[in-house]
C-alpha cells in the first residue's frame, strides 16, 4: 500500500510530500524518532532513526529535500511507531547503526536492533524462491519476503541504484595514479593515508630529490631502519632523513610494512605487482601490518594496476550521503564497484571522480 496524503494517527505523523513540514517537525521534536521508508512501504532498506540523526536531519543529501522516493514517518513515541509498523508495514524495520535509537536488549516490537541483536530468518516463499528477512529482535512481527531475492541483497541493490543516480553527473576522469617505482610505492603506502595531498607530495619530492640514490631497495630501507631506535626519537630521525619532516608515526608504520614485505619476499616492483593482483585483503593483509587497513591495502593495489576502490573519507562521505546510511569498508568498496559497472565505468576511475568531487569541490 502506498502513501497518498499526510496522515496523523495518534502521535504518528506521515509526511509523504511536505519537506518543509518535515524539517519543522524535526526542529520541534529533536528527541523524537523518524522512519525513512520507500513510498511503497517496502521495508527492505527502511530505517528507524532518531530525529537528530544526520542521515535524516541537517543538510539533505546532494542538496535536495529529505522527502522524495522515500517518505518520513515521525513520532515522539516508539510504541506508537511500532503500532504503525504493525498496521501499515507488517514486517520488521531495522534501526540505524549510526544514531542507534534502540539500545541492545530493548523491547520494541516491529524494530530490529542494529548489530548482533538483530536476528535473520531465511526460507522459501510459496513459489520456491529463496528469501532472507530480518526478524524483530524480541519477536512480535513475523518477517515476510518482500521480493524473490534475499532482503540483504535487495537492500544492497537499492544502495547501488541510489549511488548510480548520484554519480551520473560526475565527469569521467582519466585515472593516472599508477606508480612504477618500488620504494615510492612502499613509502606512499604509509604516507598517503589520512594526510593532506600537499604534505604527501612534499614528502615524496624530498625523497626523490635527496634520498633516491641511497634508498632504492628493501635491503636499503631495512638497513636505514636498523640504524635508528624503534621509538619516537628514532622514528623522527627516519622521517627527517626520508621525507624531511617530523612524521614519526608514519616511520613507525613503515617498520611494520617493511617487516611484512620481507616476510612475504616482496622485494621488487614486479613481485609486489603480482602479489597485488593475486592477493586478498582478508587472507593476505588484514592484521599483518599494524595500523594499515583496507584503505592502505586497496590504494597500494590500485597504484599497482588493480581496478578497485579506496575506501577513504571523500568516497565514503559521497556514497553514504547518496544512500542515506553508513557502510563498512567492504560494503563501500562493493557498492562503488557495482555502481561503476552499472555506469559502464572503471571502478578506480569512478573512485577518482568521486574523490575529486569531495576533495576539490563540484567545480572540478
Quaternary structure annotation: single chain
Mean pLDDT comes to: 81
Largest sheet: 7 strands, mixed
State the order of secondary-structure elements, H for helix, E for strand: EEHEEEHEEEEHHHHHHHHHHHH
Structural class designation: alpha+beta
Our estimate of the beta-strand percent is 5-15%
Number of helices: 14
Instruction: Detail the poorly predicted runs.
Output: 1-9, 115-151
- Would you count the extended β strands for me? 9
Query: What is the topology, as strand order, of the major beta sheet?
Result: 1-2-5-3-4-6-7
Percent range for helical residues?
A: 40-55%
End-to-end C-alpha gap:
43 Å
Structure commentary:
By secondary structure, the chain is an alpha+beta fold. Among the domains are: 7-115, no CATH class; 182-303. The protein is built from 14 helices and nine strands. The chain has helices spanning 19-28, 78-89, 151-167, 182-191, 197-211, 218-226, 232-243, 248-263, 269-278, 281-284, 294-303, 313-323, 329-343, 347-360, and strands at residues 7-9, 12-15, 33-38, 47-50, 70-75, 93-95, 111-112, 119-124, 130-135. The strands form two sheets. Strands 1-2-5-3-4-6-7 form a seven-stranded mixed beta sheet. Helix 3 (151-167) crosses helix 13, helix 7 packs across helix 8 and helix 13 crosses helix 14 (347-360). Mean pLDDT is 81; it is low at 1-9 and 115-151.
